[in-house]
Amino acid sequence: SVLVFGTLEYGENLFGDSKHLSVEMRTCLSLVMLLVISTSRAIPVDSVREEDPELTAGYFEGDIVLDAAPRNGMSNTSLYWPNGIVYYKIWEGFFDLVQETVIKGAMKTIEDVSCIRYILADDDQPYFVNITGNPGGCYSTVGFTDDIQKYNLEPFPINQGCFRIGTMIHEMLHTLGFYHMQSTFNRDEYVQIVSENINPQYLHNFNKYDKDMVEDFGEAYDYGSVLHYSPIAFSANGEKTIEPLQEIPVGLMGQRVTLSEGDIRKLNKMYNCVEKD
After folding, report:
1. Based on CB atoms within 10 Å of each CB, which residue in 21, 26, 68, 113 is the most buried?
2. Domain ranges in the chain?
């Protein structure tokens, strides 16, 4: 079965003992979960939006906000959040109660499968993720920057656009220090980039990283990673821009439902977590 919200396949209580969910939030979360599940069943997994808000923000690879100074990727431990604690603020005025609850539910999903903890920043906290809802799509800074950093979710109806649970998790994994799956150093062994179908102005978004820039943590290439582009990402003609070199299930590549098993293992290895039973 496909995990839609929370981490039910791991036997975890969806609501848990989260310190940042009030009673009102928990009640709202229950209703949101039913809505997400029902709409997820109504929308085919392999359906692709004409304009994916992860790709339209105009940043590096679509949704990655880069520092002014060059940084390495996952192999640079300075990009890791100290002690796995991510401080955040949800900027007032952008989201309604349901949307805010879904954002916190996405945080809870990551907490349930790792040692990462999300803590609401107080006024004295010098660095935190600033969660906004500006127009222009979904995007995030990569990794820890020791500053106030961007995380934007343009408001959409629940389970659409930036308010797909998997899209929120995708951006949260960027915040934790992960880049896109298909840009890893050994990707050509697993996918073919179909350059002639890519909009020329976005061709650079398909560049590969060097092995010394990213770390695979001993994990195999993951077609089902929530960080993988869809098969028609940045397409100029509606045709595929990424072709898998192995037979995989329809809708797997580019899924925005939740973390894959590989995503979970990498996250736990990256932050030296003791994996949950």
Report:
1. 113
2. 8-270
Active site residues: 171
- The answer to whether 204 is annotated as binding is no
Answer yes or no: are the C-beta atoms of 194 and 232 closer than 8 Å. no
If one looks up domain 8-270 in CATH, what number appears? 3.40.390.10
Residue 168's nearest CA partner among 186, 155, 149 is 155
One pLDDT digit (tens) per residue for the chain, 277 residues: 223 333 322 223 333 344 444 545 454 454 444 444 444 433 333 334 446 665 554 555 555 555 533 332 355 677 899 999 999 999 999 999 999 999 999 999 999 999 999 999 999 999 999 999 999 889 998 999 999 999 999 999 999 999 999 999 999 999 999 988 999 999 999 999 999 999 998 898 898 888 877 888 999 999 999 999 999 999 999 999 999 999 999 999 999 999 999 999 999 999 999 755 4
Q: How far is CA 249 from CA 65, 149, 253, in A?
A: 31, 36, 8
Does the annotation flag 228 for ligand binding?
A: no
Where helices occur in the chain by DSSP H, the ranges are: 23-42, 97-112, 165-176, 261-270
Both tokens of 166, joined, read: 């998997």
**Is 20 annotated as a binding-site member?**
no
Cα–Cα dist 142/173, whole Å: 8
Within 8 A by CB and 6+ apart from 51, the residues are none
Helix axes 165-176 and 261-270, enclosed angle (nearest 10) = 30
